[in-house]
Amino acid sequence: MGAQWGDEGKGKVTDMLAERAHAVVRFQGGTNAGHTIVRNGETWTLRLMPSGILHPDKLCVIGNGVVIDPRVLTDELDELRRRGVDTRALRVSANAHLIMPYHMLLDHAGEAKLGKLAIGTTRSGIGPCYADKAARLGIRVQDLLDEKILKKKIVAAIDPKRLSLRPYARDPVLDLQSMTEQYLLYGHVLEPFIADTSRLVLERLDRDEVVVFEGAQGVLLDIDHGTYPFVTSSNPVAGSACIGAGVGPKDIDEVWGISKAYQTRVGSGPFPTELEGPLADAIRDTGGEYGTVTGRPRRVGWLDLVALRYAARLNSMTALAITKLDVLRGLDPIHVCTSYRGSEGAQFDHFPYHQTVLHHVAGEYEQLPGFDEELSGCRSEEELPAAARDYLRFIEEFVGVPIALVGVGPGREQVIWTEAGRGMAGSTAATPA
Ligand code: IMP
Fold first, then answer.
1. Strands 59-62, 67-68: parallel, antiparallel or unpaired by DSSP?
2. Which residues contact 263 (CB under 8 A, 6 or more apart)?
3. % the chain with pLDDT above 90
4. Cα 197 from chain centroid?
5. CA distance 225 to 89
6. Is 431 exposed, middle or buried (0-12, 13-18, 19+ CB in 10 A)?
7. Ligand 1 closest atom vs CA 267
8. Residue 264 near ligand 1, beta carbon < 6 Å
9. Using one digit for the tens of pLDDT, what is the confidence trace for 168-209?
10. Could you say which architecture CATH assigns to the domain 255-433?
11. Domains 97-193 and 255-433 are alike in CATH topology
């Protein structure tokens, strides 16, 4: 799970966990996500594909809860094949919903209409697609296999949107015939991958195989539990893995929350520990904090432990992975937020449920000693400077969840497995040989 506002480095952690797993499953979100994996000096940027796709021997699933832009999916398949990756183990849920050209237009139009109040979406059609799903007007992957049904469903989906789509009436992407033809073509390419993915995953669980469910976005972008309305339109919390992949709550043994050693956010909405000015610029540049999908500079701030503790609770988190610890090098003291102060002076130890309150709180901080040492070569906790270790201990104690893994650089090998991480049950799946 992303334990913040997304972009925590889930791709890298999943890629590592995938090494010992038998299957990797995505269960929510869509092309709004962007996973960057650096492997043997090669960079992979994936938007829809589960990170496990780089392991050809793993079952790789795009679950029913994902919203799929078939253009992006077929492009990613092409690109992976071009770079020599065997993609035959990919399976796409027949029940997953499809992003249609009108979803993208409506996402753009919705944001433009909101003006200054815009959510700052990735404009990939996510919200309108999930809205159609809830309204029972969605087009699903299985519909790509039947021309008649596909056409009928597109007509039914467009009909109630006529008014909002009027400015685009002449846009060729809305032409019914060519849209249908284009989507049938996608269906043709995707057909070998379409499956009852819930059954495939359950079969593996029945055989006691290890399955990694890979979240997209982060808890604070959850449509129910995040900073609504500045959220995405799915549920990036752990419970959503059950719905979006078709497994039961008891099938999940461990929940790993991924958090950066600091905080970032793309798009609008409250951000109690946000920094501005040279310090923010320095963290943004050192951390390369620019959106994978949109290229937008990310907003940056100090680590927010009030929010992280909230994320831990919402997800029954059993372990934390702290990424990008190396980015904090040279910052002294390091600030870490342990409560919020409201505009009228009230102190909040818990994530406030009220939007107005949340919009006006500011972080209250503990100051911890910084470190000047280069961390990128550290491979064990003992090799870390004492101040970095103390910082990790502070997080662990405050949140009440053990840290299993620490990231000290972009490369796959630039991680530290903590003692707790090595001892974990999931380490059958996760610990390096
Ligand atoms: P949407 O998911 O494109 O509708 O965007 C809604 C909000 O979620 C915006 O603030 C986006 O910036 C944010 N968002 C969506 N996906 C991601 C992600 O993968 N990382 C970070 N932010 C995201």
1. unpaired
2. 4, 5, 271, 273, 274, 300, 301, 302, 303, 304, 307
3. 85
4. 20
5. 34
6. middle
7. 10
8. no
9. 989 999 999 999 999 999 999 999 999 999 999 999 999 999
10. Alpha-Beta Complex (3.90)
11. no
Instruction: Determine if ligand 1 sits within 6 Å of the CB of residue 283.
Output: no
Q: Are 122 and 168 in contact (CB under 8 A)?
A: no
**Ligand 1 in reach of 46 Cβ (< 6 A):** no
pLDDT at position 190 is 98
| Ligand 1 near 8 CB (within 6 A) | no
In this prediction, residue 44 carries a pLDDT of 84
Q: Which of 85, 33, 95, 58 is nearest to 211 (CA)?
A: 58
Domain 97-193 listed as CATH 3.90.550.10: no
Instruction: Give 427's pLDDT tier (boundaries 50, 70, 90).
Output: low
**Nearest residue by C-alpha to atom 21 in ligand 1:** 6
Q: Which atom of ligand 1 is nearest to the CA of 7?
A: 20
Residue 11 CB less than 6 A away from ligand 1: no
- Average pLDDT over every residue of 371-387: 96
Q: Which of 309, 227, 305, 239 is nearest to 266 (CA)?
A: 227
Residue nearest to atom 19 of ligand 1 (CA): 33
Q: How many CA atoms lie within 13 A of 157 on its CB side?
A: 30
Among all residues, which ones are annotated catalytic?
7, 35
Q: What's the pLDDT at 168? A: 94
Domain boundaries, the chain: 97-193, 255-433
